[in-house]
């Protein structure tokens, strides 16, 4: 809901309440006016105008500039007519004008519609009319004039700040949605296209001849695609050894079984990873998780194992531990490789190598979970993935 809507509703109530207040003052002092019939005629016009136009101040679209001018004109006319229809003694004593505080509603309408500048213009016109009606700058009149002037400008300024905040929030939500979609596409690219290009580059370099040229082109496209995935940043120049390292085969793209509709057993998705170098430890009973979340979790585990094969070597041992907790599913992937040097992950992200940032952490973040990576040089690496079973609470929190 727009922050302006409560202000328009409050203004509608203000106009109706202040109309009742002005009518009460008029009836209590009816016989004291110099021209009671003229005063009654104006109050009748003011009542009809307020009742017939009450819905014009319920939204910014209905409250047009022409309506605000007409509304302010009726308020100014009532203030100036007070000098003609009331007695000089009552005016000198500081009696209320015919519209009384109803005139403030016209100024507040200009403040909400046009901001503090419109409020300053409207309140200044009302102030001049009040001083002209009184004929002197009496203390109570000046006090009321300053109060209307300051309050209306403050309301107008608050409205402008609220509008700017709404625009900033809308822009931030658009950027967040675009960023999430970009990260999702980047994960898919990293898990498929980049690995295939790396395989073509490595195999082409090994075969030589025309295949080597094809491999070189595949390597160039891989670098360009990594740059795009990383956000369009130009990567630093790298040596031939670094390019060869980038082009190492991560492994054939693992194809996990398609998750069925409804709850899915995470054990079935992790079972294909078990082998001579990968040990899977799981509960004896089914570990159920929403199908889409289970598939994303399995993809994150696959990305972690790809990193083991790439950085620890094809012969490195890895262990997968699946735990079924009451509120979440925990998967731990540990290896006995050399570990990750300090600062290497940050350097990889700057160079466009987004495996950990997107394929692992990005996936878990979108699931409302967490991915913690602990690595000690010479002692291997451990990745702990946590996915909540009830994702609705996580999505509401985000």
From TrEMBL:
Ranges for region Disordered: 378-398
The Histidine kinase/HSP90-like ATPase domain, residue ranges: 292-391
Membrane-crossing segments per the record: 12-30, 36-54, 66-85, 91-112
UniProt xrefs under InterPro entries: DUF5931, HATPase_C_sf, HATPase_dom, Sensor_HK_TwoCompSys, Sig_transdc_His_kin_sub3_dim/P
Biased amino acid composition, Basic and acidic residues: 383-398
Annotated GO CC locations: membrane
Keywords attached to this entry: Kinase, Membrane, Transferase, Transmembrane, Transmembrane helix, Two-component regulatory system
GO molecular function, one term: phosphorelay sensor kinase activity
Signal peptide residues on this chain, from the entry's feature table: none
Keyword Kinase among UniProt keywords: yes
UniProt xrefs under PANTHER family: NITRATE/NITRITE SENSOR PROTEIN NARX-RELATED, OXYGEN SENSOR HISTIDINE KINASE NREB
Protein name: Sensor histidine kinase
Lineage start: Bacteria, Bacillati, Actinomycetota, Actinomycetes, Kitasatosporales
């Amino acid at each position: 809901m727009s922050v302006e809507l409560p202000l328009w509703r409050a203004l509608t109530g203000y106009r109706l309440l202040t109309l009742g207040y002005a009518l009460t003052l008029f009836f209590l002092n009816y016989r004291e006016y110099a021209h009671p019939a003229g005063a009654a005629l104006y109050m009748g016009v003011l009542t009809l105008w307020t009742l017939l136009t009450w819905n014009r101040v319920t939204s910014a679209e209905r409250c047009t500039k022409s309506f605000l001018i007409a509304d302010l004109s009726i308020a100014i006319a009532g203030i100036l007519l007070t000098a003609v229809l009331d007695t000089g003694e009552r005016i000198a004593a500081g009696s209320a004008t015919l519209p009384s505080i109803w005139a403030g509603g016209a100024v507040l309408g200009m403040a909400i519609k046009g901001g503090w500048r419109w409020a300053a213009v409207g309140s200044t016109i009302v102030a001049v009319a009040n001083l002209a009606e009184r004929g002197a700058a009496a203390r109570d009149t000046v006090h009321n004039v300053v109060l209307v002037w300051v309050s209306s400008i403050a309301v107008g300024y608050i409205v402008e700040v609220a509008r700017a905040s709404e625009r900033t929030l809308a822009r931030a939500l658009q950027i967040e949605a675009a960023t999430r979609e970009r990260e999702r596409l980047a994960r898919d690219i990293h898990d498929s296209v980049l690995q295939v290009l790396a395989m073509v580059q490595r195999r082409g370099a090994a075969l030589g001849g025309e295949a080597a040229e094809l491999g070189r082109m595949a390597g160039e496209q891989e670098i360009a695609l990594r740059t795009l995935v990383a956000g369009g940043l130009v990567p630093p120049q790298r040596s031939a050894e670094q390019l060869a390292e980038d082009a190492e085969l991560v492994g054939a793209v693992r194809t996990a079984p398609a998750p069925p509709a409804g709850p899915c057993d995470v054990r079935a998705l992790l079972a294909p990873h078990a082998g001579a170098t990968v040990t899977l430890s799981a509960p004896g009973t089914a570990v159920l998780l929403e199908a889409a979340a289970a598939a994303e979790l399995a993809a994150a585990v696959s990305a972690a194992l790809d990193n083991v094969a790439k950085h620890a070597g094809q012969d490195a041992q890895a262990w997968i531990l699946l735990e079924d907790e009451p509120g979440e599913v925990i998967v731990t992937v540990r290896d006995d490789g050399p570990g990750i040097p300090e600062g290497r992950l940050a350097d990889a992200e700057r160079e466009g190598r987004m495996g950990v940032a997107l394929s692992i952490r990005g996936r878990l973040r979108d699931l409302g979970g967490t991915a913690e990576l602990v690595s000690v040089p010479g002692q291997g690496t451990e990745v702990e993935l946590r996915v909540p079973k009830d994702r609705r609470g996580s999505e509401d929190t985000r």
